[in-house]
Amino acid sequence: MSEQKKASFMEELDRWTESTVIDPLAEATLAADEKLYQQLVEDIKKAIRTKVLDSYRNGQAAGPRPARQPQKGGR
Q1: What is the pLDDT of residues 8-24, one digit of tens each?
Q2: Model's pTM, two decimal places?
Q3: For 23, what's the count of Cα atoms within 13 Å in the CB-facing half-sphere?
Q4: b/e map 14-33, b = 16+ CB within 10 Å
């Protein structure tokens, strides 16, 4: 039985971007409906803001990361 690997954050973000941003814009462009296009732009902006806020909140809930120790011998 093969185990399914959990998608990385970037893979999930790519799928979300395709379904939430690219596909709706492509459909509106094909429909050539200016009103629909403008509404989609607003909906997409809201979806992006929500996604970023969710990510921010998840980071806050995870708590601070330990400070990195300086590397020896240079930079």
Answers
A1: 888 888 898 889 888 88
A2: 0.58
A3: 7
A4: eeeeeebbeebeeebeeeee
